[in-house]
Amino acid sequence: MADTPKPPDVPLQIQIDDDVANGQYVNMALVNQTETEFTLDFIYVQPHQPRAKVRSRVILNPKHLKRLLGVLQDGVARYEERFGPIVLSEEGRH
Q1: Backbone dihedral angles phi then psi of residue 88, each to the nearest 5 degrees
Q2: What is the rounded CA–CA span in Å between residue 71 and residue 43?
Q3: Of 43, 46, 73, 75, nearest to 57 (Cα)?
Q4: 61 contacts 68 by C-beta, under 8 angstroms
Q5: Helix, strand or coil for residue 20?
Q6: What pTM did the predictor assign?
Q7: Which of 26, 54, 66, 71 is deepest in the core (most CB within 10 A)?
Q8: What are phi and psi for residue 31, nearest 5 degrees?
Q9: Which residues contact 16 (CB under 8 A, 6 or more apart)?
Q10: What count of other Cβ atoms lies within 10 Å of the Cβ of residue 76?
Q11: What average pLDDT score do residues 6-29 get?
């Protein structure tokens, strides 16, 4: 039985709709997890309002979340090298 040749790698073409490309401003995130997935809720909280709205929800498996965490840590490190440390308040919320 002969080995079948592997097709050449084709670059992934990523498309983005205009409304998604504009992004959403959020100032809060909640993370929930089960054995098989993590759910990230990105929320916008208006000052002096009793309600907040989830702007986006992203559901990932644990391996993808760990990869995302690594990319975020790398991005923060590069940011701080260029612009200085990001200082959090005592509560860690600001």
Answers
A1: -95, 150
A2: 21
A3: 43
A4: no
A5: helix
A6: 0.77
A7: 26
A8: -125, 125
A9: none
A10: 12
A11: 91
If DSSP states are collapsed to H, E and C, what string results for 27-58?
CEEEEEECCCCEEEEEEEECCCCCCEEEEEEE
**Which H or E run contains 71?**
helix 62-83
Nearest Cα to 64, choosing from 89, 40, 94, 92? 40
Burial (CB < 10 A; 0-12, 13-18, 19+), residue 52, is: middle
Can you tell me the distance from the alpha carbon of 93 to that of 56, in angstroms, rounded to the nearest whole number? Answer: 20
Judge whether 62 and 36 are in contact, CB under 8 Å. Answer: yes
CA distances from 2 to 5, 81 (A): 9, 52
The one-letter amino acid code at 62 reads: P
| Two tokens, residue 90 | 């005592």
User: How long a stretch of residues is the chain?
Assistant: 94
